[in-house]
């Protein structure tokens, strides 16, 4: 009976560790299996390390460009080795904290590869665990180009970037989705020559078309070479030929064309959550699914915000305008340059766009400093069906970017 648990969870990423923490908090016995690092992709090879490196890159770029606001800084350097060391420390600190929290809650951690071998049965390293409920939260892995697999030297995925020993000079990124855009910004901020190729006719094709257009403009201003409707024709001897005939010699190719779910062989009844179930591949959605599964709170029709980091941030939630029937909605677009705070901060790029139907917000799209925070004002309103008339009664502080949310509502 020693190996009997209420919950057996495979994968200790956001989906798995959130399930484990809530279930254990509810007094259930929990065993959590992880074959690599506790915290999963998000903490070790995704959200956290990317945003840590991005913070350094952002600061470097910002400080280099503050002359016009009276801050003169000479001899600014981007110490790549130190940045990576700092990133490792951040990841380690958070991982150690997570392990401690799991242990304090009484979660049994087994750092081994695990498999569901029969109904209510998990095997790991020759041991058998009987689990009343089995949750599979095995995540995802980078998708490779069809004809050119990762060689981890010239053809890289995002995992490989976290082990780079030196900052590249010239980078080719395949894919202008969230991952491609964030890395393009990081590399460009740190003085690299960056080309991004995208097979679709616009960058960030899952987003609102106005957002994509603005990204194209931002990339142009920042001299990021974006080639849409373009693919890779050939990679040979570290030389890349594109479908438009261009030949490039980058230091490496970063393939950022999405991820594949990891679905282990499943025997018996299990629940699959997070990236493994192949829906929205976001840490916040993985954690939401975990909460919905074990917290007992009723969740209906969740609105999931998406954020792309860098300067300015990009965030959206709900419907895209191009997907709505013509004439079925109201729309406002508030330019960020109308905000006092944006001028104080020298960050006037972007807009706040709101789509409504019968006084209820059905979509919001933001390009702005602090977009990652602002989007939650729309998320709260949408999730709780707060009408635009009710939002108009709220008093917003000044000067803030939140005033832009208010103004965008007032324009409706
Ligand atoms: C570069 C990058 C940046 C990102 N940035 C963001 C962001 O800013 N915001 C955001 O919301 N999302 C971001 N994501 C996506 C986010 O990381 C994932 O959506 C999230 O990690 C999914 O959580 P998960 O628990 O489903 O899976 P994962 O985090 O992938 O965890 C699954 C775990 O299961 C383990 N595992 C797999 N098979 C087994 C097995 N048989 N036995 C034991 N263990 C196993 C794996 O080792 C892994 O640790 C980013 C991803 C990448 C790659």
Task: State the main characteristics.
Enolase-like, domain 1; 412 residues; binds flavin-adenine dinucleotide; FAD/NAD(P)-binding domain; 3 domains; five-stranded parallel β-sheet; alpha/beta
What does this structure look like?
- This protein is α/β, with parallel strands linked by helices and 412 residues long.
- The protein has three domains: 2-141 and 260-295, FAD/NAD(P)-binding domain; 144-257, FAD/NAD(P)-binding domain, CATH 3.50.50.60; 304-410, FAD/NAD-linked reductase, C-terminal dimerisation domain (Enolase-like, domain 1, 2-Layer Sandwich).
- The protein has helices at residues 14-25, 40-45, 47-64, 80-104, 158-161, 178-189, 209-221, 283-294, 340-344, 371-383, 388-391, 402-410, and strands at residues 4-10, 30-33, 108-110, 114-118, 121-124, 127-136, 140-142, 155-156, 170-174, 193-197, 225-227, 232-236, 239-242, 247-248, 252-255, 259-261, 271-272, 306-308, 313-318, 330-335, 351-357, 360-368.
- A hairpin with a 2-residue loop joins strand 4 (114-118) and strand 5.
- The longest helix has 25 residues, at 80-104.
- Bound molecules: flavin-adenine dinucleotide.
Quick overview:
With about 400 residues, the chain is α/β, with parallel strands linked by helices. The chain is built from 12 helices and 22 strands. The chain has helices at about 15-25, 40-45, 45-65, 80-105, 160, 180-190, 210-220, 285-295, 340-345, 370-385, 390, 400-410; strands at about 5-10, 30-35, 110, 115-120, 120-125, 125-135, 140, 155, 170-175, 195, 225, 230-235, 240, 245-250, 250-255, 260, 270, 305-310, 315-320, 330-335, 350-355, 360-370.
């Amino acid at each position: 009976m020693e190996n009997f648990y209420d919950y057996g969870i495979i994968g200790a990423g956001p989906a798995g560790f959130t399930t484990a923490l809530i279930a254990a908090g509810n007094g259930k016995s929990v065993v959590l299996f992880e074959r690599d690092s506790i915290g999963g992709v998000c903490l070790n090879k995704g959200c956290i390390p990317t945003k840590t490196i991005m913070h350094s890159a952002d600061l470097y770029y910002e400080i280099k460009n503050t002359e016009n606001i009276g801050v003169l800084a000479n001899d600014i350097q981007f110490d790549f080795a130190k940045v990576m060391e700092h990133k490792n420390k951040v990841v380690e600190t958070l991982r150690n904290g997570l392990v401690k929290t799991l242990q304090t809650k009484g979660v049994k951690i087994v750092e081994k590869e695990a498999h569901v071998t029969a109904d209510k049965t998990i095997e790991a390293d020759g041991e058998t665990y009987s689990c009343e409920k089995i949750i599979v939260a095995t995540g995802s892995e980078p998708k490779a180009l069809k004809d050119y697999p990762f060689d981890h030297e010239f053809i890289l995925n995002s995992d490989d970037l976290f082990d780079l020993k030196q900052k590249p000079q010239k980078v080719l990124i395949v894919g202008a989705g969230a991952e491609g855009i964030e890395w393009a910004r990081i590399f460009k901020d740190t003085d690299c020559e960056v080309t991004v190729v995208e097979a679709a006719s616009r960058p960030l094709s899952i987003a609102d078309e106005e957002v994509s257009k603005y990204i194209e403009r931002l990339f142009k201003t920042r001299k990021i070479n974006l080639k849409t409707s373009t693919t890779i024709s050939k990679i040979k001897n570290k030389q890349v030929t594109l479908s438009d005939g261009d030949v490039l010699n980058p230091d490496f190719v970063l393939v950022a064309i999405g991820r594949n779910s990891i679905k282990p062989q499943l025997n018996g009844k299990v629940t699959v959550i997070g990236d493994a179930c192949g829906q929205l591949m976001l840490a916040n959605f993985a954690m939401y699914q975990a909460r919905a599964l074990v917290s007992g709170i009723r969740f209906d029709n969740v609105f999931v915000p998406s954020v792309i980091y860098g300067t300015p941030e990009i965030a959206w939630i709900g419907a895209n305008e191009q997907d709505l029937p013509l004439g079925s909605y109201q729309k406002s677009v508030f330019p960020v340059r109308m905000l006092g705070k944006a001028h104080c901060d020298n960050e006037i790029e972007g807009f706040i766009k709101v789509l409504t139907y019968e006084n209820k917000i059905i979509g919001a799209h933001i390009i702005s400093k602090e977009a990652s925070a602002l989007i939650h004002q729309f998320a709260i309103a949408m999730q709780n069906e707060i009408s635009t008339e009710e939002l108009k009664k709220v008093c917003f502080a000044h000067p803030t970017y939140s005033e832009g949310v208010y103004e965008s509502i007032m324009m409706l």
